[in-house]
């Protein structure tokens, strides 16, 4: 890390994805004091092309000692501070495929650049004040996003969707702190503190904070996705459900019990959340060795899933086999699916006697693609996505941010208690400072200076 904190040396890395298949363009990026000098030693731009910032040059990358041609390429120059890192940046836009970019990277290293560590360009952007921490995290989210909604939220984060409200909350805490500090230092010169107004403002801050915190669950799901296992006894329609849901013939369906022997996966998106659906072998006692192994896998998948869709055959009702499986898996997050309702009278479906502990129930006819929307709604409900307020729909905080915001919340709660218990003003400021530090941690800014600035500018007490 200490290495990372000396950001003036020149770093280089392949900026485009490194995949076995070749892309049409591969980019090598350099950032730092020597970036342009190194660029000039490697890149030959014929004619009257000028090495100016925000220009693209056309030319050849050659080995500086042997003169050997490495690639025909474009070179992009972005001088500090108008670059991603706020340092001098040079990008070689080479031909795609791993060999040209690897060779160019090697030349950069031989010419004096250091291999960049993961995230080091963004770290420099942060250290040089171009991005705050939440924006830097949003960039990682955007690159790793697995659904359009996740990408949209990451982009909103990059635009300051989280930074701005956090800064505002912090500013409101600083305002209160300033008022209290002023009373501690200059009690005689100022009117008495309006405690009830301060308590009310803190309560308001807590409400806003909680609304942001409520997006944590959604953030987790957007980043890591949701693993959903379809579990049940043989022949109830698990594979049919997977196929209907994913609109594919992904899993083999037959009328023979024991058709699915291994776990079949399908990737879906539900409510913007990437969902990995796992169809499993029907669980039953069996002597067939292959099926037995499949059944064992089904149990493991059920245990490791975030959510279990427990499927039963509505025509057969809640059988003793279903009860046994239910007792074995007892997942904390479970939706019961009554499938094959096309074969049953509606009133009979209602009379199915499943355990009262099951609160989430959906009816489907997988064979007719019926009930899928209801199933998705039940999933969104089961994972508490409904908690997010409409105006926070493009916000989804991560674990680090949630942890810091929770600390801020605890500190503010404590401060309210301190006020209620009539403790001295010094105690109020301790709690309040705790909240401000925690909020500042979210955006990664240093607060001491801003607190001081605020106190002295607002109250003009530099006398
Ligand atoms: N009528 C009707 N038949 C269905 C429905 N869903 C599935 N089936 C039929 O039930 C039989 C079993 O379906 P599968 O999807 O293979 O069942 P499974 O639970 O995956 O079975 P295993 O892989 O053996 O555990 C097939 O003949 C399906 O066509 C439904 O909603 N209605
Ligand atoms: Mg199956």
Main β-sheet description: 7 strands, mixed
Number of helices: 16
In what order do the strands lie side by side in the largest sheet? 3-4-5-6-2-1-7
- Unreliable stretches (pLDDT < 50, length at least 5) are 1-5, 451-463
Structural class, judged by helices and strands? Answer: alpha/beta
Number of domains: 3
Bound molecules: guanosine-5'-triphosphate, magnesium ion
**What is the CA-atom radius of gyration, in angstroms?**
30 Å
**Strand element count:** 13
How would you sum up the global shape? flat
Write the CATH homologous superfamily of the largest domain. P-loop containing nucleotide triphosphate hydrolases
Write up what this structure looks like.
The relative contact order is 0.10. Helices cover 45% and strands 17% of the residues. It starts with 10 loop residues before the first strand and ends with a helix. The protein has three domains: 120 residues, 2-Layer Sandwich (Gyrase A, domain 2); 119 residues, tRNA modification GTPase MnmE domain 2 (Four Helix Bundle (Hemerythrin (Met), subunit A)), CATH 1.20.120; 163 residues, 3-Layer(aba) Sandwich (Rossmann fold), CATH 3.40.50. The strands form two sheets. Strands 3-4-5-6-2-1-7 form a seven-stranded mixed β-sheet. It has a six-stranded mixed β-sheet with strand order 9-10-8-11-12-13, with helices on both faces. By secondary structure, the protein is an alpha/beta fold. Helix 4 packs antiparallel against helix 5, helix 6 packs antiparallel against helix 15 and helix 7 runs antiparallel to helix 14. The longest helix has 23 residues. The protein has 16 helices and 13 strands. The structure holds guanosine-5'-triphosphate and magnesium ion. The site of magnesium ion has 6 residues, from helix 9.
């Amino acid at each position: 890390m200490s290495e990372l904190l000396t950001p003036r040396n020149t770093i280089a890395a392949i900026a485009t994805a490194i995949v076995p298949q070749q892309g049409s363009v591969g980019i090598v990026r350099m950032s730092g004091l020597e970036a342009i000098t190194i660029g000039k030693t490697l890149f030959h731009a014929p004619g009257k092309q000028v090495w100016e910032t925000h220009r693209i040059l056309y030319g050849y990358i050659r080995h500086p000692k042997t003169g050997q041609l490495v690639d025909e390429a474009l070179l992009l120059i972005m001088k500090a501070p108008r670059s991603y890192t706020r340092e001098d940046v040079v990008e070689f836009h080479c031909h795609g495929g791993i060999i040209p970019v690897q060779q160019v990277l090697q030349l950069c290293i031989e010419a004096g650049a250091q291999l960049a560590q993961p995230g080091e360009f963004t770290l420099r952007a942060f250290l040089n004040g171009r991005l705050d921490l939440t924006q830097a995290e949003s960039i990682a989210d955007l690159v790793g996003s697995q659904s359009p909604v996740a990408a949209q939220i990451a982009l909103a984060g990059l635009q300051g969707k989280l930074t701005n409200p956090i800064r505002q909350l912090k500013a409101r805490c600083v305002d209160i702190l300033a008022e209290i500090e002023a009373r501690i230092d200059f009690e005689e010169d100022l009117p008495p503190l309006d405690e009830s107004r301060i308590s009310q403002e803190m309560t308001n801050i807590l409400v806003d904070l909680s609304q942001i915190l409520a997006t944590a669950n959604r953030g987790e799901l957007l980043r890591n996705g949701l693993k959903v296992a379809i579990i049940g006894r043989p022949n109830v329609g698990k594979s049919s459900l997977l196929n209907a849901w994913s609109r594919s013939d992904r899993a083999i369906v037959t009328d023979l019990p024991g058709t699915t022997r291994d776990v079949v996966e399908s990737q879906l998106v539900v409510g913007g959340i990437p969902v990995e659906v796992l169809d499993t072998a029907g669980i039953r006692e069996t002597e067939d060795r292959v099926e037995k192994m499949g059944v064992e896998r089904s149990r493991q998948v059920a245990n490791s899933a975030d959510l279990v869709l427990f499927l039963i055959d509505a025509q057969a009702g809640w059988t003793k086999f279903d009860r046994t499986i239910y007792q074995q898996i007892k997942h904390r997050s479970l939706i019961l699916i009554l499938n094959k309702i096309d074969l049953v009278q509606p009133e009979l479906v209602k009379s199915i006697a499943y355990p009262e502990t099951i609160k989430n129930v959906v009816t489907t006819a997988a064979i007719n693609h019926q009930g899928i929307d209801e199933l998705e709604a039940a999933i969104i409900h089961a994972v508490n996505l409904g908690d997010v307020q409409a105006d926070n729909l493009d916000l989804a905080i991560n674990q680090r941010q949630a942890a810091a915001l929770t600390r801020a919340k605890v500190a503010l709660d404590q401060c309210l208690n301190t006020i209620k218990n009539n403790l001295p003003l010094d105690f109020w400021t301790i709690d309040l400072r705790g909240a401000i530090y925690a909020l500042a941690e979210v955006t990664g800014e240093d607060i001491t200076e801003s607190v001081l600035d605020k106190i002295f500018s607002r109250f003009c007490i530099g006398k």
